[in-house]
Specification:
four-stranded antiparallel sheet, alpha/beta, 524 residues
């Protein structure tokens, strides 16, 4: 409160005063403001201190799909991600960043609106926030309303049905992969016998036949393997080059821009151009075989059956198949890293490298056979932690990242909206539940948040997890988990039933109770 009053006084004739007049009672008394309005006022007033004199900074927001922390900036040594390294060398790496829901749709609805999933009401991939929580303002929509030119390529919102379209974007484009050469020959032979696959009986037959051609054609089952295509023939190659074209053609005109680049990989199918598979010989891949003992102390509700879709049997290590998928997943990562590098080159060639804030992250993590599990929808560290690198140049903001800086402070993806709003001088919606990362940007040694909160559905109920600097605590409708991550970073020993950890367990239970109340406070 005192900060708001002080900032408002300092900017008496500025937009802060206008904000107070707009949102207070006729008396203009700040004490009449509800808490969520006070938070918005503090963010907006502080943003006026963050933006240097002159034009507002541009924003390049890059979000990858299903990318876990198998990148060099997250401390994973068995990968080559030079574009991530390039951004990290120029900006700040957040080593402890967490999603709020380990599934694409709910996670994106959460961080694009700055709200916890229990407040957005989006707990699946089908629901539309415009129907569930009418009037909720997304990050690109707020930037567009604030005078920014906004454009998106690829998957930013989960799909086109839930994308706010013209309310958020001046332009929004999605691409498809070109047809793989191995498929072209087979398709032509098929059409010679059955007719065009575009309609009728032949279309149905082709859809049934297509997944049997090769692993690459299995889609969500999932498919994997080299495609025989060049980078620019893949969705993500097209996404990167479209961002480059927008920058080269200056489509934003005289406006600052907010460009979002939705990188589709490494989401299944794990497809990439051939040369990226050559970078990761299967025999050289490194991983630790899973242990069945782990599940003797962990609630079975923590599992999913997604391993079956990958062709695995629970509690059986299939070394060869695991190497197939890991090679393909890593090939996808190095492929998208190369496309992200093209975007960075375009930013530099257009002259906008030093007036653009760059955010590079993922919507959630991903398990690759750890604990015999595959995929997402789980509340483990590997599933909930995401890579996050941010560069804030000094030329257009008074809060800037030090080159090559790192922080171990806890952050959540819902913090991105208030952070960018503050740095760009954009008035944030008052209901935002995240908090600006500007303190960590100023002081990487700061502790960040006290905890990060992640939820996931199990039928009609929720599993809920709290990550503090030392512990992860998870509560299920039937059972609990507690891990000391300082001693057990792989989460192999569940301490929830340990007599020696009763006091810690009770503290974590209390923290989770308080957090859940806050996570619901902006719900309708």
């Amino acid at each position: 409160m005192r900060v708001c009053v002080f900032l408002a006084a300092c900017y008496r004739k500025s937009n802060c005063e206008h904000f107070c007049e707009k949102h207070t009672q006729p008396t203009g008394n700040l004490m009449n403001l509800p808490n969520r309005i006070l938070v918005g006022l503090a963010l907006f007033c502080s943003s006026q201190l963050s933006v240097a004199l002159g034009k507002q900074p541009n924003v390049l927001f890059i979000v990858c799909d299903d990318l876990n922390t198998h990148v060099s900036t997250s401390g994973y040594p068995h990968i080559q991600t030079p574009a991530f390294d390039e951004l990290a060398a120029a900006g700040m790496t957040f080593r402890r960043a967490y999603c709020q829901y380990p599934v694409c749709g709910p996670s994106r609805a959460s961080f694009l609106h700055g709200l916890y999933p229990q407040s957005t009401g989006i707990l699946d991939n089908k629901s539309d926030i415009r129907e569930v929580r009418p009037g909720t303002i997304s990050m690109p929509q707020r930037f567009k309303e604030s005078g920014y030119w906004t454009g998106a390529v690829g998957k930013v919102f989960h799909n086109e049905k839930v994308d706010p379209g013209e309310f958020a974007w001046h332009q929004m484009l999605r691409f498809e992969n070109d047809e793989m050469p191995m498929v072209t020959r087979i398709r032509k032979e098929f059409e010679a016998e059955h007719g065009s696959i575009e309609s009728g009986k032949a279309r149905k037959l082709w859809r049934e036949f297509y997944p049997t051609i090769a692993p690459q054609t299995r889609g969500q089952q999932p498919g994997y393997g080299p495609t025989g295509l060049q980078d620019e023939q893949h969705k993500d190659g097209k996404n990167a080059r479209q961002i480059g074209a927008w920058l080269e053609n200056k489509v934003h005109g005289d406006k600052p821009f907010f460009m979002a680049c939705g990188i589709q990989k490494p989401h299944v199918p794990f497809l990439a151009p051939d040369q990226y598979f050559d970078m990761y010989p299967k025999a050289e891949l490194q991983f630790t075989p899973a242990s069945l003992e782990f599940w003797n102390t962990v609630p079975k509700i923590a599992q999913t059956k997604r391993h079956e879709g990958f062709g695995f049997t629970f509690a059986e290590e299939n070394d060869a198949l695991r190497r197939d998928y890991m090679q393909a997943y890593h090939a996808c990562i190095s492929f998208i890293d190369a496309q992200i590098g093209i975007v960075f080159d375009a930013l530099q060639e257009s002259g906008h490298w030093d007036d653009t804030i760059v955010v590079l992250t993922s919507d959630h993590g991903y398990l690759l056979g750890e604990k015999f599990m595959w995929g997402k929808v789980m509340l483990f560290e590997t599933c909930d932690r995401v890579p996050l690198v941010i560069r804030v140049p000094q030329s257009v903001t008074k809060v800037a990242t030090d080159p090559g800086s790192q922080t171990e402070g806890l952050v959540e993806l819902i913090d991105l909206f208030p952070t960018l709003a503050e740095l760009c001088g954009v008035e944030p919606p008052p209901e935002l539940q995240g908090q600006s990362l500007s303190q960590l940007i100023r002081d990487p040694a700061a502790s960040g948040k006290d905890f990060a909160y992640t939820v996931v559905t199990r039928g009609p109920t929720l599993g809920k997890a709290i990550r503090t600097q030392r512990y992860r605590y998870t509560r299920w409708p039937r059972g609990e988990e507690l891990y000391d991550l300082s001693a057990d970073p792989g989460e192999e020993r569940n301490l929830a039933s340990s007599v020696g950890h009763i006091a810690t367990l009770n503290r974590m239970r209390a923290v989770l109770d308080r957090t859940e109340i806050r996570a619901k406070e902006a719900s309708n």
